[in-house]
């Protein structure tokens, strides 16, 4: 059965747009949260740019200060493109910040965006470029208040902090995505397990219904067919056939009620009817004999109650299905049921019938009975073989484990 895994919609969108592998491409539409984050970063970059512009105004001419302010404003506006081109924007702002200190805030914001959205290799390259740009800026546009050594140290520390912060956010986002994906996978697997359990339960009930009802309904069909083809039979035979039909119908209703009771919840009136075991095999043989079938039971198990309940029930079902098939396909033939075994060696059951001696009544069948018996024996840890016998009859042989 093919399993279909469900992925979160944002992962599907990210895979489509290349957001997870670092590829440039069209970005999804901004959400309300994206607008809030972008606005906050814009304001933060503008605040840092104003501080740098104020410092530039104290030590530079009005023309240089005006140029710094214009470049800083353009750099802040360019931040609105960071979601579409984060790498290109970070490289551009790194170069611009060498000559324009007012672009430092926008550079840090773009560097944070790269650390959040791109793999470590790209982040490391952009981070080294930003460190180099801040170092060169100290010499191109020195700040008399900090000096060269402190300016270089501050630039390196700030770039590393922003990069680490962005990588931390990226790791947390990936962790949340992985947990969400795992939860969806677990939910899908749980639904699949429930569906498989329901299917297994339905198949078990269907097998049990076939094994139980096929025997009763075959009796009904055989004797009803006899009444149809022998309307002039003696009254005693007609009365006996009618009695078998009545008893079989009653037992079929009881068995059907028992199986349906399995589907009910506890306390809904399900009957606790005893399940068949090896000890009730004599009752089954007596029942089919009463219906006019020739059956010989040869059981070497002296104490059937010592046989495990599940194993005894499986033997009963195998004998019941084999007798039902013999009645349908070999009417009038003698059937021999042989049971052998002891603890430690296992339990064997053989059901053999000779070739039919008369015409075979057309009794409908699904052809799944022997398949179900084979599966039942396999689930019990045993095996079952069946096929035509050398004398033209049919034989069923099964072995089941019987622990010591």
Explain the layout of strands and helices:
Blueprint: H1 9-17, H2 32-59, H3 62-78, H4 86-97, H5 104-117, H6 120-140, H7 148-229, H8 235-263, H9 281-290, E1 295-299, H10 309-329, E2 335-342, E3 346-353, H11 369-379, E4 383-388, E5 394-400
Helix pairs in contact: 2-3, 2-5, 3-5, 4-5, 4-6, 5-6, 5-7, 6-7, 7-8, 7-10, 10-11
Describe the structure.
With 404 residues, this protein is of the alpha+beta class. The protein has two domains: 181 residues, no CATH class; 129 residues, Histidine kinase-like ATPase, C-terminal domain (Heat Shock Protein 90, 2-Layer Sandwich). 63% of the residues lie in helices and 8% in strands. The chain is built from eleven helices and five strands. Strands 1-2-3-5-4 form a five-stranded mixed sheet, covered by helices on one side. Helix 10 links the parallel strand 1 and strand 2. Helix 3 packs parallel to helix 5, helix 5 packs antiparallel against helix 6 and helix 5 packs parallel to helix 7. The radius of gyration is 43 Å and the shape is rod-shaped. The two termini are 39 Å apart. The relative contact order is 0.06.
